[in-house]
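User: Design a sequence. Structure:
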């Protein structure tokens, strides 16, 4: 029976370039052996999420999220709670495309991104759970984390990542510390901080050195707490990030690996940001769901230490080989005098 793929695409993403390339993308998936169809998201709440859930329940083998990180987040939220989950492909057409960057999926050519899916190489990715919601890249709290709420969607479309930088420069002077209580596997932080965040990949806000030792599938978040709210010190920390990830040992930073986190703010409201969007208020519990969803990726370009050996497709091929050998009848093996040597 032929495999089926459903492309869920945001028609407004990438200055509508996605719509222009859609036929080419569908052809690539068809030639890769998928019976392919497409669904354009609407302005209705959770449009991409609900379609992903429907496709998964109807037995589609592949769901392709075509759009920005927000579209990918919705698709993952539609699939993550299910016991039987299809594989996910990504066609990046958003502003920063952090997730595609982490998986080394081409971000400048949508057709080349579709070819990554056709190549058939996947990695079983960790995702995060925050209450009843799921996230693929980051969860955060604190004044710094509220940056993305203040960037108008039309500004993101027109100016891309520059919009975040401009708004960030405007916001920095207003940074103030927040009383936080952050419990994690091996300890607890109680005190004032300007931000905490949990990262699942090495690509956060377009920077690849914020989490220089990120693993995609080890079952652990990277927890970073920025204790200082001093503007000069924050700029110094950003400089350290850009200079090879040297911030990880700075005493103004808490940098830990953890499977679970409970975040609260005992004295004031703290909004939680999930993949760039408002995800509720603290207190909130977070847990890492290890290797929860298979994502198509350009494995040849991902560093070997970014995912575990058990995630290598060669391991799966070995298992299938052993299974096939075990199914060979004993009589057939015995007819070959060299089989037992």
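Assistant: Done.
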């Amino acid at each position: 029976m032929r495999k089926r793929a459903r492309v869920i695409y945001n028609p407004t993403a990438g200055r509508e370039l996605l719509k222009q390339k859609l036929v080419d993308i569908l052809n690539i998936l068809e030639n890769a052996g998928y019976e392919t169809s497409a669904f354009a998201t609407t302005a209705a709440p959770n449009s991409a999420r609900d379609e992903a859930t429907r496709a998964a329940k109807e037995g589609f083998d592949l769901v392709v999220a075509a759009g920005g990180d927000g579209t990918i987040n919705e698709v993952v939220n539609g699939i993550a709670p299910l016991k039987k989950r299809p594989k996910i492909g990504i066609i990046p057409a958003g502003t920063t495309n952090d997730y595609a960057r982490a998986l080394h999926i081409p971000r400048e050519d949508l057709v080349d991104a579709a070819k990554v899916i056709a190549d058939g190489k996947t990695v079983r990715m960790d995702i995060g759970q925050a209450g009843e919601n799921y996230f693929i890249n980051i969860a955060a709290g604190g004044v710094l984390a509220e940056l993305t709420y203040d960037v108008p969607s039309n500004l993101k479309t027109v100016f891309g990542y520059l919009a975040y930088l401009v708004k960030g420069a405007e916001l920095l002077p207003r940074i103030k510390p927040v009383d936080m209580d952050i419990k994690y596997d091996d300890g607890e932080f109680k005190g004032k901080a300007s931000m905490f965040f949990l990262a699942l990949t090495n690509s956060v806000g377009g920077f690849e050195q914020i989490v220089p030792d990120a693993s995609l599938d080890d079952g652990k978040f990277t927890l970073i707490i920025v204790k200082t709210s001093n503007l000069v010190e924050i700029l110094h920390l950003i400089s350290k990030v850009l200079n090879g990830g040297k911030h990880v040992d700075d005493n103004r930073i808490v940098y830990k690996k953890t499977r679970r986190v409970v975040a609260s703010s005992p004295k004031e409201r703290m909004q939680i940001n999930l993949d760039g969007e408002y995800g509720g208020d603290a207190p909130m519990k977070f847990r890492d769901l290890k290797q929860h969803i298979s994502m198509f990726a350009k494995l040849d370009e991902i560093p070997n230490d970014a995912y575990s050996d058990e995630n290598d497709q060669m391991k799966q091929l070995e298992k299938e080989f052993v299974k096939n050998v075990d199914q060979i009848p004993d009589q057939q093996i015995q007819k070959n005098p060299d089989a037992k040597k």
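The longest helix spans residues 17-31. The chain has two domains: 3-120, 135-289.
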